[in-house]
Specification:
Layout: H1 14-44, H2 55-58, H3 70-77, E1 82-87, E2 92-96, E3 100-105, E4 108-114
Antiparallel strand pairs: 1-2, 2-3, 3-4
Length: 118
């Protein structure tokens, strides 16, 4: 008598097989993406540090303070070397002195900027 070996073949329904394939692809894609991100992050990560000192500490230039009036600036620092008329709304006026430029909003100092050495 001849014995036949029985081997079983399990066939999965198509839907289950598709799920298994999708899961494998999703896991593989996620792993590849994570690898790419970690490699990029490790090789490209850097930072620049810029240290700045306040200009007032670096220069010994006496300048108008914020909030001073035009009359007070004129009496403390004299007549400016150049003046630009008001522009915009609110009106911004610019007075140029030898070492700095003063910007006014209406009649009050808004900013004072040190001129660069040329």
């Amino acid at each position: 008598m001849q014995q036949r070996s029985r081997s079983r073949v399990i066939t999965l329904p198509r839907q289950a097989e598709r799920r298994r394939v999708r899961l494998a692809l999703a896991v593989g894609s996620a792993a590849l993406g994570l690898l790419a991100v970690s490699t990029f992050s490790a090789s490209e990560a850097h930072a620049d540090e810029l240290r700045m000192e306040p200009i007032v500490e670096r220069t010994n230039v006496n300048m108008p303070a914020r909030g001073m009036t035009m009359d007070r600036v004129r009496s403390a620092f004299g007549q400016p070397a150049g003046q630009r008329s008001a522009v915009g709304d609110p009106p911004i006026t610019r007075w140029e002195y030898d070492g700095f430029v003063v910007y006014f909003e209406y009649q009050y100092v808004l900013h004072t900027v040190v001129k660069r050495g040329r």
